[in-house]
Amino acid sequence: MTVFLVAIPGLENALEREATALGFADAAIVPGGVEVAGDLAEAAHANLHLRCAARVLWRVAEFRAMHLAQLDKRARKVPWTNWLRTDVPVRVEAVCRKSRIYHDKAAAQRVAGAIIAAGVPVAETAEVVVKARIDDDLCTISLDTTGEALHRRGHKEFVGKAPLRETIAAAFLDQMGFDGSQAVVDPMCGSGTIPIEAAEIAAGLAPGRSRRFAFEHLVGAVRPDIEPSATPLTPRFFGFDRNDGAIRGARENASRADVADWCRFERQAISDLEPPHGPPGIVLTNPPYGGRIGDRKLLFGLYGSLGRVLAERFSDWRIGIVTSDGGLAKATGLELTPSGPVSHGGTKITLWTRM
Ligand SMILES: C[S@@+](CC[C@H](N)C(=O)[O-])C[C@H]1O[C@@H](n2cnc3c(N)ncnc32)[C@H](O)[C@@H]1O
After folding, report:
1. 341 preceded by cis ω (within 30°)?
2. Secondary element (H or E) of residue 135
3. pLDDT value of position 228
4. Cβ atoms of residues 136 and 98 within 8 Å
5. Ligand 1 touching residue 176 (CB < 6 A)
6. Is ligand 1 within 6 A of the CB of residue 253?
7. Is the predicted pLDDT of residue 208 greater than 70, yes or no?
8. Among 145, 143, 140, 1, residue whose Cα is nearest residue 74
9. What percent of the chain has pLDDT above 90?
């Protein structure tokens, strides 16, 4: 059996590196993500510890299905109750690609029928999802072991405007060479995603420590214990924003994540930004981008000021700017190298760096 780590489009390599570092055997990049060897225990481990995966699927069965009657018959041979509990309802999602069976809904109905016949209840609103993917007449059955997507760590109650996903923040920190020892400054931190993610990495806190997962509803599931974390001694993770509400929210988010002692959030406009004491570290930020026509002119001014402040006061620091607009990245006047793009809920964003 294999565990399929769903990647955020553009972060497949980052996910492969992370999975290998976490000890997964034979991590291989495949379309849509990374495949690793394993079963429920590995899927649970991946959910609790991977920082940049979007979701974790456990592939439990595979068979050919040329037409709906065959799908129905073969789905009934799948040993559903090896994994699904008769007291926990599930829901079925199906997709058909380049196959003789082309009707997603009809395919889902057949699989649901087989599951019901095995004694497992099926309900539209169930938390546990069984995924059937029919590709080239080959039907792969996976169990979604995650539930709510993995960027939802369970700490960010305040979200602010255009928050960055935790998964992407973690991958970009890694791309900037962050290993937990450097200071991290986000001059436009919004809800605090980047400094909070950095503090968690430095403290060795498992990203899934505070939330529940779909795998906990499967047969034989045990939620593994999480090792206690290391403790950073000095606050080296800084977030600034000109918006008072954002700073209040970021502080609350940091408290919920148990990293408030190592983070500092202050209301401050970009023009007042100064490097904190100590050795140079990493500036990583995602300034406002996109927005309505007409805003772009103002944004050019903002990126220009950001660039000037960073060039003058942060000359020895690594710089990472996350934006969907290459013209705005250039408006910083900094010599930045793009990498990506990465899909952020449909918008293509790029990390521009000076290393
Ligand atoms: C795209 S949001 C950042 C989102 C953040 N990464 C998160 O995950 O929540 C951009 C932020 O820049 C802030 N901002 C805009 N102009 C600013 C300025 N001149 N100085 C400081 N912050 C500014 C906004 O208040 C907003 O919170």
Report:
1. yes
2. strand 128-135
3. 67
4. yes
5. no
6. no
7. yes
8. 140
9. 88
